[in-house]
Request: fold
Amino acid sequence: MDQDAAVVDTAPPRQDGEPHLGVFIGAERYGLPLGRLREVARITGLRRIAGAAPHVAGMVNLRGEIICVLDARAILGLPPAPSYGPGPAYVIALRDFDFPVGLIVDWVTDIFNVDKSAIEPVPEAWNPERRACLLGAATIGADAVGLLDLDRVVRR
Reply:
């Protein structure tokens, strides 16, 4: 297996709750539902698409499949990353969509479980662009984590 790519293990969680992949987008921590993820890989060979919407980062070849890659920073209203060149950015290939699609994030951190009863409403103070893409928020350790709604993220 390529050392910069990993197939996401969607085995049932060992604890109560739904497993999420922890990521940083900018300085903010988010959770993506593990069951909706296909693969995590470092960004390589990102090809920009002339005239594409600002939230479309481009296309990448991931194991022989061309996927459309969305820029999570642009979707969430965050400032652009300095570069998606040889830095730490990752593409998260998503599943359950009608077309091959992925999401660029800055860092992949951990896997954690979120019990439905622990999900809180998104705080009113959060940016409206972010609020529109979240199912809710949860406290993981000492961090407030936004739980991304991947259907809303991809439709934006």
